[in-house]
Amino acid sequence: MTRLEVRDVTVRFGGVTAVNEATIAADAGHVTALIGPNGAGKTTLFNVITGLQKPTAGRVFLDGHDITHTPTHRRARHGIARTFQRLEAFGSLTVEENIRVAADAIRSKNAKPAQVTRELIRRIGLERYAGVRADAVPTGVARLVELARALAIDPALLLLDEPSSGLSQAETAAFGELLRDLAAQGRAVLIVEHDMPLIMRVSDRIHVLDRGVLIASGTPGEVQADPAVRKAYLGEDEPPSDPNPTMAMPAVVEMDEETFVATYAGTHAAPPTRVAEPAAETETETESEPEPESEAESEAVPESEEPPPSPDGAGPRSGGWF
Amino acid sequence: MNIFLTYTVLGFVIGASYAIAASGLVLTYATTRIFNVAHGATAMFMAFVYWELAYNQGLSDWLSVLLVVFVIAPLFGALLERWVIRRVADAGVGVTLVVTCAVLVGLIGAAEKIWPPGVHSVTMFFAGHGVRIGKVHVSGNDLLTIGLAVAAGAVLFAFLTFTRTGVAMRAAVDDKELLALHGGRPHLMAALAWAMGSALAALAGILLVSARPSDLNYISLTLLVVNSYAAAMAGRLTSLPRTFIGALVLGLLNAYASGYLWTGTAWTGFREAIPAIFLLLMLLLMPQAPLRVGRLSGVAGVRTPEPRRIAIASAALVLAVVIGNAVLSTVNVNRMALGLCFAILALSLVPLTGFSGYVSLAQFSFFGVGALTVAKTHSSAPTALLLGALLAAVAGILVALPSLRLQGLYLALSTIAFAQIMDSMVFQNPSLGGFGGSLRTKRLDLFGYRFTSDKAYALLAAAVFCVIGILVIGLRKGRYGRILIALRDSPAACATLGLNPRLARVAVFAGSAAIAGLGGGLYAGLQNQVGSTNFQFFNSLPLLLIVVCAGVTSVSGALLGGMLLMALNSYPSTQAYLFLILAIAAVGLGKQPNGIMGWLFDLRDHPVAGRLGFGSAGLARSIAASAAGAGTGSGTRSVGKSPVAVGDNAEAEA
Questions:
Q1: CB-CB under 8 Å, B293 with A87
Q2: What is the pLDDT of residue B300?
Q3: What are phi and psi of A57, to 5 degrees?
């Protein structure tokens, strides 16, 4: 079911066209990725979807209803939640209070905000930071706070803006599991991300933006094969230099876009098809235990990988966040 | 036709002085992004310096003008930038407004000290000279004013457009670091801008006093230049040409209003409110600023106290009042009660400014609404107090509703406009006492007990303060408090969580105004009479300054603030010391936004000093330690087990 549809949206800032007649969709139960080089208009599109930015032209639909002119807070009440690329956690509040604000915001849905808050803290693995002010936690943790906060309003459509930056590799892997989990619960997840291995692993569908124009849409395999995408990322049509099948690549190498093309361009490996049972898919890729939707299980996931030392200097952490 | 021409000329002259003052304001704001509330006070002070040189020291008029405009005022502006403004340049709007408020209050205090009240008259320039346009006589002084405005505008425009320094000055606005990288000197540019701004203020001040010799007065001259805020807003604080046009329109409006509006007393108020209405309109016409995203910001706050500490502190306050009643003279008991009424007023700023980050300069107007309600109903029933609070809340909603789109500085300016409109149209209305008049009030009668003695009244005020203080702390700990702080930290994120930022803002303005109104009602009862001058907009400036310096994030800060405000009112001789303390605290706000109470709380939390009892001696201990800290700090909720929790902060900062 199409949960979100962005139709022919154009955003102009003065003379600059940030987004040009872009049309994308995100389905319930799926992870949809929005990728593109810096300045492609991804965050602008997120702002349009959440109502923080008025589009110059075009419309936005949620579950078939036109929400183009709906104020941001009403969209949230209709089930849209997001995280921010540049952090927007409430710095003067503790991590717990950050989540509680959101849980309280939709009290009609959350019978017990305090309990919802506690559960999210446990599920995202923020126990150690619960009482710490959000402006005092490491960046990666602050991103997770934003994620937990967004989840606290129980969104039907979750927009994640570069959520994995600042996470270690083990954490990123666990994060991928969480994304699949969230989609399996029936949510539509729309994610902007630069971590290509992660995107290729978890997405059902990928939209590629370049300088505000949608240049490709399709499954991870289709997108990787698309010459326009290669051109956008590399600036030229180059024959594939590395025939490695994409999906065999474990998520242990941090990649920027260029590495992505060098690694993946032209590979025709079949992408995972996720129509039936998402949990089964993730299983094959991360070598983890079978993944039912229980939280106790997901906490065990990082154990199956060797947790490398945190590269971002965030200090010692427990095995994983999820 | 002649009358029309006369008023047109008058409008041009008024507009010209506004334009000169406003262009200085625009220059400093455009270069350093700091709105100088003290711009008018600078004009006033420099006009006095001019008077001193020309009339007291016997220098020639022209030499005095040159000395003031080209030497003394620029030096003052540059030093102000170097020692004060630079230290708070990166702090929020709240802090910079408070710091420039401190400069304003300090300048007025200094002027009163140096030139004690008396006759300071100044004659016109070119007295006796002039030209005739048709049948209208235009004095030499008027021509000079218009000519200087045109010259100042042309010189400024040329300077900013064609000279290297001028261009660098404009670059400093956009990106200080970038300018520095490219060999520019942003600090020098800022100092230069402030020097030029002061010079323009001085010029405007001198022209204003020479046009209307009766205006050499500390307050009215300061406020007269406040009108130039309106003109500066017409240029959105950045465009000089639009500022000049705005100043001209405002000047003409003023002139025609005094010429053509009915002369009834009700219209007098309207006439005086014209600049404020103009300012409000300009603010409302501002384009909607998009919600800012892209920062993880937190404001340092103080810890919220445990219920036990709240109880101890409340008891301590009541005990202190009982002891005060026993040992103090009647006059001082009355002052203590007055301080408590002011403390309730100060408390109204805690949720509004302390938690939500909105700067309001209309608090004394809400206070006045409460006081006038009690006076007009002429009732001693508690319902009069509550009605006053309710009406004040309505006034609060009236302030909040039109300015919903405004943020930071513009919101603060809209509260100034509102307060000025209230001043001239409501408080000075003849049916409410009129200018300089007063209304008699009655003391509260509660369940048959009449609080006729000041001692009983002091206890009543203390009790009300404790109750509201506890409510404020409860607010901070609860859902709405979190929402207010979340809204301050990131309105955009709040909106994406389904919170309606507008509703919350209207609610907090209404609540804050209600608290102020209640304080005003109590104040009216205490004083036995109230007059319009008690609630002048001007009083809200020292209120904001004192409360923010004392600690606007905590209930104990409000108590300290109320007492300081009372001291300022009741002991004029201490003013100089108070201003000194406030000036230091204001500059320290860049480092410690929780003010004096913030320093005290830190001392308490200091592992060594805390144990030795610093910052927690005697009464100060109970009040400082606990009544206090409804704040934005690290949540006590998570610490739970250790109520004192010195380690708590350490963990939060880890």
A1: no
A2: 63
A3: -150, 165
Helices marked H in B352-478: 363-377, 382-400, 408-422, 454-477
The interface residues of chain A toward chain B in range 73-102, judged by CB-CB distance below 8 A, are 73-77, 80-82, 84, 86-94, 96-98, 100-102
pLDDT digits (tens, 9 = 90+) for B460-485: 999 999 999 999 999 988 888 899 99
Question: Which amino acid belongs to residue A102?
Answer: A
Q: Which two tokens stand for residue A276?
A: 């039936």
pLDDT of B241 > 60? The answer is yes
Q: What percent of chain B has pLDDT over 70?
A: 85
In 3D, which of B628, B511, B467 has the Cα closest to residue B560? B628
For chain A, give the longest Cα–Cα distance: 57
Select the residue from A48, A88, A112 to test the B interface by mutation, using most B Cβ atoms within 10 A: A88
Q: How many CB atoms lie within 10 A of CB B614?
A: 13
CA B550 vs CA A241, B342, B367, B403, B593: distances in Å: 67, 13, 20, 28, 10
Predicted confidence band at B558 (pLDDT cuts at 50, 70, 90)? very high
SS3 content of chain A, % helix, strand, coil (to 5): 40, 20, 40
Contact call for B633 and A92, based on CB within 8 A: yes
**Which DSSP string corresponds to B286-315?**
SPPPPPP-S--------PPPPHHHHHHHHH
Note whether B493 contacts A73, CB cutoff 8 Å.
no
Record: contact B482-A101, CB cut-off 8 A:
yes
Residues of chain A above pLDDT 90, percent: 23
Cα(B41)–Cα(B47) distance, rounded to whole angstroms?
A: 10
Q: How far is B407 from chain A (nearest CA, A)?
A: 16
User: pLDDT band at residue A316, thresholds of 50, 70 and 90?
Assistant: very low
Give the C-alpha distances (Å, rounded to integers) separating A161 from A74, A191, A265, B92, B517.
Answer: 20, 6, 24, 27, 46
Strands (E), A63-192: 65-66, 80-82, 157-161, 188-192
Q: What pLDDT is recorded for position B299?
A: 65
Q: Indicate the pLDDT class of residue A309, thresholds 50, 70 and 90.
A: very low
Separation between Cα atoms, residue B139 and residue B145, nearest integer Å:
10
- pLDDT mean across residues, chain A: 74
Query: What ipTM score was computed for the predicted complex, to two decimals?
Result: 0.74
